[in-house]
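To: structure subgroup
Subject: Chain for Friday's discussion

All,

I'm putting the inputs and outputs inline so they're searchable in the archive.
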Amino acid sequence: MKYMKQFAAGVPGITMILLILSCQSVNPAKKYPNMVADVDPFSVGGVEAQFDRFFSPKVNKAEIDVVFHPRLNAVSLEFKYAFINYRQFWDEAARKQFAASLELYKRDFEDKKLINNYRKTRAVYGKVKGRVVWESFKFTKTHMSNPIIEIGYRFKEDRAFFTTLMRSAEEVMNTGDSSNSVDSQQISMYFTRAQADELAKLFDQAYLLEILGTKAGAVTDEPAATDAADAEAVPQGPYRE
């Protein structure tokens, strides 16, 4: 009986150890089906872009931090707009679309084919599926939505800019969240050709993996292998780590 009591007293501790071990044994590739490396996000540089100025047809220049998320194989553009912190995520396919669209824009620019009609040109080079995470303050609720991002160009202040237009989208609510949903804001970014070229460089998959290689050793340029059933089981939640 003495030994039974000692065993019973030790059960909670054993259970906790088993729980910790089980958590540690979770395969990251199953949690992140697009993962290229089990490495924390890191900045790969910064770019400048222009944003709409409130109550004015002019634009303001701002800094954007470019962060690579190896577990997601996605790049986030991190910036503040209207006093709100945003992280706009671009997966590999969207980043390739950005680069291809930029080349079309530069060719149209050189051939003098640009027209001053934003309704026709705001998505002339295509659309991509995006994801945005935003929060008003560091310790407030984080919101997330999956907006469409249109790629085109627009004339502002008698200049042509290569543009991305993130459309407003309904917030994706966590299960059990009873708070009021808040749609994401529509936000335009305006790039000169030089600014867009710099971002395209930071978007390039080979460039990102080269930087990653210096941090994490050898890395494959393909998503980590997972069973189809495992991939389907992974919830397509917000780009949070």
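Points worth raising on Friday:
Residues 38-173+181-221 form one domain.
Strands lie at 42-52, 59-69, 74-81, 84-91, 127-129, 131-135, 143-145, 148-156, 159-166, 187-191.

D.
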